[in-house]
Specification:
By secondary structure, the chain is an alpha+beta fold. It contains eight helices and ten strands. It has a single domain, classed as Leucyl/phenylalanyl-tRNA-protein transferase, C-terminal domain (Aminopeptidase), CATH 3.40.630.
Length: 228
């Protein structure tokens, strides 16, 4: 899973019509540059409402399973199919245990109200799926989670695409080739999301593969320039 992430893939529908899940690449990638985070004026009262208690990694499995719940209205619009398969959930739990997957959570009255989960590989982070039980809870977890990441020194969050309901927050499209270069640079640069729980570093064996992949892609770009 970490290798797929480093190589520029994300989990999703390989064939949305058939509901086939797997690792996906597109021509462009949706990203949020954290120095360009915008909280829309109309959303600020919801995002910063005092009823939300923002936490991280206190209910990771619950967040993942809520995102995978096929009874959710968002999933029902996709014919009741989810790409968050049991196999992916098992992998995510293992990555969470090693510090390579995190949840950003909004709690209300002591109950999990909404959340987002994503990957971490060195200084690369993503937000892959979100859910809410209470209106606007997922937006609070999403926006304030990104502000937390910015405070911790992260520069960019991979969003996979540019969701219509989040476009006003500053998410933009990035060419896949540029995105992959960003991931390969960030994957080997260690940065902690939670100083109390260091983790997320690329394993040494993976770092060797990342360096080799960077070299091969640089050589391919050079070849294309020399022999257009």
């Amino acid at each position: 899973m970490l290798w797929h992430i480093a190589a520029g893939y994300f989990p999703g529908f390989v064939d949305p019509r058939q509901g086939q899940a797997g690792w996906v690449k597109m021509s462009h990638r949706g990203v949020q540059r954290l120095d360009r985070v915008v909280i829309p004026r109309k959303q600020k009262p919801y995002v910063f409402h005092p009823k939300w208690e923002i936490r991280m990694d206190t209910a990771f499995e619950s967040v993942v399973r809520a995102c995978a719940d096929v009874t959710r209205q968002t999933i029902q619009k996709r014919a009741g199919r989810t790409w968050i398969t049991p196999e992916l959930i098992r992998g995510l739990l293992a990555l969470h245990a090693s510090g390579h997957a995190h949840s950003y959570e909004a709690w209300c009255d002591g109950q999990l109200a909404g959340g987002v989960w994503g990957f971490q590989l060195g200084s690369f982070v993503s937000m892959n799926s979100m859910f809410h039980h209470v209106s606007n809870a997922s937006k609070a977890a999403f926006a304030r989670g990104q502000l937390l990441l910015r405070e911790r020194g992260f520069a960019l969050v991979d969003m996979n695409g540019v969701p219509d309901h989040l476009v006003d927050f500053g998410i933009e499209w990035m060419p896949q080739e540029v995105f992959e270069g960003q991931v390969l640079r960030d994957a080997c640069v260690q940065r902690d999301i939670d100083p109390r729980r260091p983790g997320g570093a690329a394993p040494r064996c993976l770092q060797a593969g990342i360096h080799a992949l960077r070299a091969s892609r640089a050589a391919r770009r050079l070849f294309r320039r020399m022999f257009p």
